[in-house]
UniProtKB/TrEMBL annotation:
UniProt xrefs under Pfam families: FtsX
UniProt keyword Transmembrane, yes or no: yes
InterPro entries membership: ABC3_permease_C, Lipoprotein-release_system
Subcellular location: Cell membrane
Membrane topology: Multi-pass membrane protein
BP GO annotations: lipoprotein localization to outer membrane
Transmembrane segments: 20-40, 267-285, 316-336, 356-380, 432-453, 660-681, 710-731, 751-770
Family: Belongs to the ABC-4 integral membrane protein family. LolC/E subfamily.
Protein name as annotated: ABC transporter permease
Primary localisation category: membrane
Keywords: Cell membrane, Membrane, Transmembrane, Transmembrane helix
Length: 786
C-alpha cells in the first residue's frame, strides 16, 4: 500500500467520530433524494405504463344526450385518432352497513371486453354479462372502504327507479386512479365508480341509440385545442358541457400535482443537506491541514507534487462522504419502498413497485462527490500554495487586538471563563458565523417539516370550521326550481336550508381560459360563507363576481377587470362580468356570484343545483333514510366526512415527511455541534491543559469549551427560525396546486419544537465531547514538537 494511503487510513481512524458525523449527514441528504426521486420515478413509470396499456383518453366531453349516429361525424374531426361514446350518470346508493347516503358514477362498458378507451383492469371476480341489467363492476377503493366483494349487492336509484345491483367483480381504471367527484377530495366510503354493460345502462337511462359522454385520443402531432374547439361546436346543439384535455381531468390532475410536488421535494431538501456536508468537510480539512502543516511540507520536500498532496486530502473527504452516500442509498431504498407502498394505497395501479434507477444512484454519487470536493478544495487552496521551507516553520501567532468587550469595558463584569469564550468568538468571527449558519439550517429544516401541520390546522379551522358550517351538502341530478327549498325544509331533522346554484362555465380573459364552476349563493348565508383576509364574511355583489386568488392567477385577471363568461348549459349565453373581489381560499379554483345576478347573466329562471343543510344530530339517521329514497338527490356530502377524507389524503403523507425531516435535522444539529466542539478541542487543547495545571477544575475547563458551543447554538436558533420561515414560504409557492394550496402559517409551537430538537442534539453531542475532555492527557498535549 502506498505511504500516503497508509497515512490516509491512520487519519481516518484518528478522526473517526467527526468522519462518522459527516457521513451520517451525507447519508441523510442522499437518502432523502433517493426516497423522493424513487417514489417519483415509480409513480411516473406506473402512470405511463397504465395509461398506455389501458388506452387512457386525451380529451373528454360530457353532454345532455346525442344520437349514436353523431359518433361517426365526431370521429372524422381532424386530429382524432380513436373516439368512443359512453353513457355516464351519477346515482345515489344505499350501501349495506352505511347509514348515510352514498353516490356512484355509473359508466358503460364496451360491448367487447378489452376494447375502447379508459379500459378497466379486473382485479377480482368476473365481467358483467351482456345486457345484464343488474350486474356491475365496483371500483377497488370504494369496495375496500365498504368491505364489498363479488357477490354482494347495493341499491341504486337510476333514472328515478330503484335497482338492486349485484357486484360481479372488482376493477380499476386509469380514469379513476383517485375516485373523486368533481374537485373534492376522495371519499371512498361514500363515492365510488360502478361499470355496467353499455346496452343495459343505456336501457336503464333511456339512452338506447344515444350517448352522453365522449372520450378520444389524439393522432400524433394533432392540436388538442383545435380538436376541443371543433368538438365543442359539434356538441353544442346536444347540450355539451365543454370538452377538456387530460391535464384538466380530475384524477390525472391530482396525480400530476403529486408528481410535481415530489420533483420539487427531491431537489430542495437534499441540496440543503449536501451544502452542510460541504461546509463540515471544509471545516475538518481546514483543521487537519493546519495541524499537518509540517507533514505537508515534508511531503513536498520529498518530491510529492501539489496535485498528489491535494488528491490525498480530497480522497480523505471522498471516502467519508461516499461512505455516507452508500449508506444513504441503502436507507433511501428502504424508505422508498415504504413510500411506494403509501402511493399504492392512494393511487390504484395494476402494479406499482419501487425500483432503484441508475439515474438516482448516479446523481447520488455525483452529488456526494461534488459536496466532498467543494469542501476539500476550499480548505486546500491556502496550504498548497505554501513553499516547503515556509510550511516547515510553525504558523505565525495570530495578532490579537482588543475586541468590543475590552473597548467597551464589559470584561470586568464577566467571569474569566466567560471572557475567554467570548474572546475566542470575537477573534474568529467567520468561523463562528459558519457554525451558526450550519446549526440554523438544522432548526430551519424542523420548522419546514412541522409547518405543514400548522398549515393543515389553519385550513381545517378556516375552511371546514369558519367558512363551511353546514352538516351536509346535497346535490340534485339536475337543476330545480328555487321552490324546492321549502320541500327540503320539511325533511326530518333539517333546521336550516341554504340553496346554491353550481353553473358550469368557461371563463376567458385575454388569451387565458379555464373551465370551472360558478357557485351562486343566496342572500342570507350562515352555512357557507365567503371570507375576506380577516376572516369576515363578505356579501355577494349585486352585480359581478368574486374569484379565488388561484383562479385569478390562472386567468391573469385583477379586481375591476371583466371576464368573458361562457355558460356551458341552458341557453349557453356569453356574458361580460366584472371581477368585484378576489379572496384567498386554500382548496379548489371557483368563482362566486349572487344567485339573482347569475340568473340575470345566464338569462334563466332562478334555479338551484343543491343546498347546504344544518341538521339536528338526534334525527340524522332518519334524514339519511329519507334522502336515500328521493330520486332527485344525486349525492350527499357530509362536511365531517369530507374533512376526514382530506386528512387521510393529505395529512398522512405530511406526517411521514415531517418525522423524517425532524430526524434528519437532529442529525445535522448533532454533526455541526460535535464537529465544532471537536475542532475547538483540538485547537485549544494546549490552552485547556495549561488551565488545568494552573488550577482550573475539569468542570470549568469543559464549561469554557462547551460554553462556546452553547453560545453558537443560542445565536443559531433565531436565525434558524427565520430561515425556516423563508424556506417554508418557498415551498408554499413551489407546491401550490389548483386542487390544494398550503398557506404560509408557522406557529409558536413549531418554533419551540425546532429549538428543542436542536438543543437536544447539541446536548447529546456535548456529552460525547465531555467524555473526551475528561480523558484529556495533559502531559501528551503539552509536549512540544520540534
Amino acid at each position: 500500500m502506498p505511504p500516503l494511503d497508509r497515512k490516509l487510513l491512520r487519519d481516518l481512524w484518528r478522526m473517526r467520530g467527526q468522519a462518522l458525523a459527516i457521513a451520517l449527514m451525507a447519508a441523510c441528504g442522499i437518502a432523502s433524494f433517493v426516497t423522493m426521486r424513487s417514489g417519483y420515478e415509480a409513480l411516473l413509470a406506473s402512470q405511463q405504463a397504465y395509461y398506455e396499456h389501458n388506452r387512457f383518453a386525451d380529451v373528454f366531453a360530457s353532454l345532455k344526450r346525442a344520437p349514436a349516429s353523431l359518433l361517426q361525424q365526431l370521429e372524422s374531426i381532424p386530429g382524432v385518432n380513436q373516439l368512443v361514446g359512453r353513457v355516464v350518470i351519477d346515482a345515489s346508493l344505499d350501501v349495506p352497513g352505511l347509514d348515510e347516503p352514498a353516490s356512484a358514477r355509473l359508466v358503460s362498458l364496451p360491448g367487447a371486453p378489452g376494447t375502447g378507451l379508459n379500459r378497466v383492469h379486473l382485479r377480482r371476480g368476473r365481467m358483467p354479462e351482456n345486457m345484464a341489467r343488474n350486474e356491475v363492476l365496483a371500483s377497488e377503493a370504494f369496495s375496500a372502504a365498504n368491505r364489498l366483494s363479488p357477490g354482494d349487492s347495493v341499491t341504486a336509484v337510476i333514472n328515478g327507479r330503484k335497482e338492486i345491483l349485484q357486484i360481479t367483480g372488482i376493477a380499476i381504471s386509469p380514469e379513476y386512479l383517485n375516485e373523486m367527484k368533481g374537485s373534492s377530495f376522495p371519499d371512498n366510503r361514500r363515492f365510488g365508480v360502478l361499470w355496467m354493460d353499455h346496452d343495459a345502462l343505456a336501457g336503464a337511462t333511456d339512452m338506447r341509440d344515444g350517448f352522453n359522454d365522449v372520450a378520444l385520443t389524439l393522432a400524433p402531432g394533432a392540436s388538442e385545442q383545435q380538436v376541443i374547439e371543433r368538438l365543442d361546436r359539434m356538441l353544442q346543439p346536444y347540450g355539451g358541457f365543454g370538452a377538456y384535455g387530460r391535464k384538466d381531468q380530475v384524477s390525472h390532475s391530482f396525480l400530476a400535482n403529486e408528481l410535481a410536488s415530489a420533483r420539487v421535494s427531491s431537489t430542495v431538501i437534499p441540496a440543503v443537506f449536501l451544502a452542510i456536508v460541504a461546509f463540515l468537510t471544509n471545516n475538518i480539512l481546514m483543521r487537519v491541514t493546519v495541524l499537518q502543516r509540517a507533514q505537508i511540507a515534508l511531503l513536498k520536500s520529498f518530491g510529492y507534487a501539489d496535485r498528489e498532496v491535494a488528491w490525498h486530502y480530497v480522497k480523505l473527504a471522498l471516502l467519508i462522504v461516499l461512505a455516507g452516500t452508500v449508506a444513504g442509498i441503502a436507507l433511501g431504498s428502504w424508505m422508498g419502498q415504504g413510500l411506494a407502498g403509501l402511493y399504492a394505497r392512494f393511487y390504484h395501479f395494476p402494479r406499482l413497485e419501487f425500483s432503484l434507477s441508475g439515474f438516482s444512484i448516479g446523481v447520488s454519487a455525483l452529488g456526494g462527490a461534488a459536496s466532498a470536493i467543494a469542501g476539500a478544495w476550499l480548505a486546500l487552496r491556502r496550504i498548497l500554495r505554501m513553499r516547503p521551507a515556509e510550511a516547515m516553520r510553525p504558523e505565525a501567532p495570530a495578532h490579537f487586538r482588543p475586541g468590543p468587550l475590552e473597548r467597551l469595558g464589559f470584561q470586568r463584569y464577566m467571569s474569566v471563563p466567560l471572557r475567554m469564550v467570548l474572546r475566542r468568538l470575537e477573534r474568529k468571527p467567520l468561523k463562528a458565523l459558519v457554525s451558526i449558519l450550519g446549526l440554523s439550517m438544522a432548526a430551519a429544516l424542523v420548522v419546514t417539516g412541522q409547518y405543514t401541520f400548522d398549515a393543515l390546522n389553519e385550513i381545517i379551522r378556516v375552511q371546514f370550521r369558519t367558512a363551511q358550517r353546514d352538516d351536509l351538502m346535497l346535490s340534485f341530478n339536475e337543476s330545480r326550481d328555487a321552490s324546492v327549498t321549502h320541500a327540503l325544509s320539511a325533511l326530518p331533522g333539517v333546521n336550516r336550508v341554504e340553496p346554491f346554484r353550481a353553473a358550469a362555465v368557461r371563463l376567458r380573459f385575454a388569451h387565458h381560459a379555464k373551465k370551472t364552476l360558478i357557485f351562486a349563493l343566496g342572500g342570507k348565508r350562515e352555512l357557507r360563507r365567503i371570507l375576506d383576509e380577516e376572516e369576515r364574511p363578505i356579501d355577494m355583489p349585486a352585480e359581478g363576481m368574486v374569484l379565488t386568488s388561484k383562479l385569478a392567477e390562472i386567468l391573469g385577471v385583477r379586481k375591476g377587470e371583466a371576464l368573458s363568461v361562457e355558460f356551458l348549459e341552458g341557453q349557453r349565453r356569453v356574458a361580460e362580468v366584472p371581477v368585484v373581489r378576489i379572496v384567498d381560499e386554500p382548496i379548489g379554483v371557483f368563482a362566486y356570484m349572487d344567485m339573482a345576478a347569475l340568473s340575470r347573466q345566464a338569462e334563466e329562471p332562478l334555479l338551484v343545483s343543491g343546498a347546504y343543510l344544518a341538521v339536528d344530530p338526534a334525527r340524522q339517521a332518519e334524514l339519511y333514510r329519507t334522502l336515500k329514497g328521493i330520486p332527485a338527490v344525486a349525492s350527499v356530502s357530509l362536511r365531517e366526512a369530507t374533512l376526514q377524507s382530506f386528512l387521510s389524503t393529505i395529512a398522512e403523507n405530511m406526517r411521514i415527511n415531517t418525522r423524517v425531516l425532524v430526524a434528519f435535522a437532529c442529525v445535522i444539529a448533532f454533526g455541526v455541534v460535535y464537529n465544532a466542539a471537536r475542532i475547538a478541542l483540538s485547537e485549544n487543547a494546549v490552552e485547556l491543559a495549561s488551565l488545568r495545571i494552573l488550577g482550573f477544575s475539569q468542570a470549568e475547563v469543559g464549561g469554557m469549551l462547551l460554553g462556546e458551543q452553547a453560545l453558537l447554538v443560542a445565536a443559531a436558533l433565531p436565525l434558524g427560525c427565520l430561515l425556516g420561515y423563508q424556506l417554508a414560504a418557498l415551498l408554499s409557492i413551489l407546491l401550490s396546486q389548483e386542487l390544494f394550496r398550503i398557506p404560509l402559517v408557522v406557529s409558536t409551537r413549531t418554533y419551540l419544537l425546532s429549538a428543542a430538537a436542536v438543543l437536544l442534539s447539541a446536548v447529546v453531542s456535548g456529552a460525547l465531547v465531555w467524555r473526551r475532555i475528561r480523558r484529556l492527557d495533559m502531559i501528551e498535549v503539552l509536549k512540544t514538537r520540534e
